[in-house]
DNA sequence: TGTGTACTCTTCAACATTGAAATTTAGCTT
DNA sequence: AAGCTAAATTTCAATGTTGAAGAGTACACA
């Protein structure tokens, strides 16, 4: 009935008691990953709050910067990348328009489509967030040597490959997102 | 204006163009982590759906199993662990009660408090999910040797330590969650 | 040229989460 | 023992997301 979360090793020990066939090495990786991501998001969330930005807006900003010049994307494409419904995008963009972070105009090539563009204000906001985020990220990796950072990046990239280029062929159980 | 997400390396290259001081090794780790977590959650979400379970319910189930016997927790404690408001917990538990996954009773020691307990149905549900999840997880780590799995687990654990035992003393920017 | 089909975005109602106020209880202080 | 403060949960109104339906546009094919 403890108030605080058990340590990762405690968690895995209990999981194994519940389900003997579980591989503790695999569980350690997977659960550490998910714990880390939660912590990172809490940290980002706090920094965003000090910049009057919600994490919803931040996600969209990131996608727009991520495509590079000229910082344009269709709403549906953003929605798919973020795993949201198009309806949610409509509303997010409404809000971001009001804050001057993005523009919305009809696509001349296909008038059903809409083009979302990043404003200078939006790009500046992205930069402000990244400046703070990079301080946190550096702190997070503090204990790792240069070699270890590269090693970790490589291992994670190899996992990512499995899951980002997953063809759902051959009874594949892996996820496709786009 | 591409339809699909840029690769991790493309993403980082663009980030660096926007913000020169960014350390690509750090960015690679952090962004790979966050991409992986998103993919994993999509995969889990699909498996949960086939078991008529929402990810909200799954999160609560996990916390209850994670504390071990006798599988009891206060609503506020669950809320803090999951980063939710107490109000959200009230509603989640309402739903889970209706599905017979948990019980809710007053704490005899402090009648303001409430004790949420796992039912046998709930524990069985957890097991069903884990049986499927472990297949996916094994597939995810497929390309890593036994040594590499341990190595990855260790590196991630070291990051986690930085962030889970963070005292916000000394101007610390790291997050505290509980 | 006309029709059908597919696609994109928006609108709408239902549901989940949030933040704040309200309620109830415990524990401390005097 | 009374009153004050702090804590846990629930209730309520407001906001965000979802799924489905609707409106508009492009493309293929007859």
What report would you give on this structure?
2 copies of one chain form a homodimer. With 178 residues, the first copy, chain A, is mostly helical. Chain A is built from 7 helices and 3 strands, in the order αααβααββαα. Chain A has a 3-stranded antiparallel beta sheet with strand order 1-3-2. In chain A, strand 2 and strand 3 (114-118) form a beta hairpin. The N and C termini of chain A lie far apart (42 Å). Residues 169-178 of chain A have low confidence and may be disordered. Chains A and B meet through helix 1, helix 2, strand 1, helix 6 and helix 7 of A and helix 1, helix 2, strand 1, helix 6 and helix 7 of B. The structure holds a DNA duplex (30 and 30 nucleotides).
Layout of secondary structure:
The structure is a homodimer of 178-residue chains.
Chain A: H1 8-18, H2 24-50, H3 55-66, E1 72-73, H4 75-82, H5 86-98, E2 102-106, E3 114-118, H6 120-140, H7 146-164
Chain A binds a DNA duplex (30 and 30 nucleotides) through residues 56, 74-76, 84-92, 95, 110-114.
């Amino acid at each position: 009935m403890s108030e605080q979360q058990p340590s990762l090793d405690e968690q895995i020990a209990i999981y194994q008691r519940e389900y003997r066939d579980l591989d503790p090495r695999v569980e350690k990786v997977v659960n550490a990953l998910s714990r880390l991501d939660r912590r990172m998001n809490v940290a980002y969330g706090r920094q965003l709050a000090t910049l009057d930005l919600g994490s919803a807006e931040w996600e969209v900003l990131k996608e727009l910067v991520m495509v590079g010049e000229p910082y344009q994307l269709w709403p549906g494409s953003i929605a798919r990348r973020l795993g949201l419904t198009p309806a949610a995008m409509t509303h997010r963009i409404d809000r971001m328009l009001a804050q001057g972070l993005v523009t919305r105009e009809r696509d001349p090539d296909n008038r059903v489509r809409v083009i979302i563009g990043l404003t200078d204000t939006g790009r500046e906001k992205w930069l402000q967030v990244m400046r703070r985020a990079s301080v946190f990220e550096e702190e997070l990796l503090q204990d790792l040597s240069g070699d270890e950072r590269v090693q970790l990046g490589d291992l994670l990239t190899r996992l990512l490959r499995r899951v980002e280029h997953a063809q759902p062929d051959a009874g594949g159980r892996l996820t496709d997102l786009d």
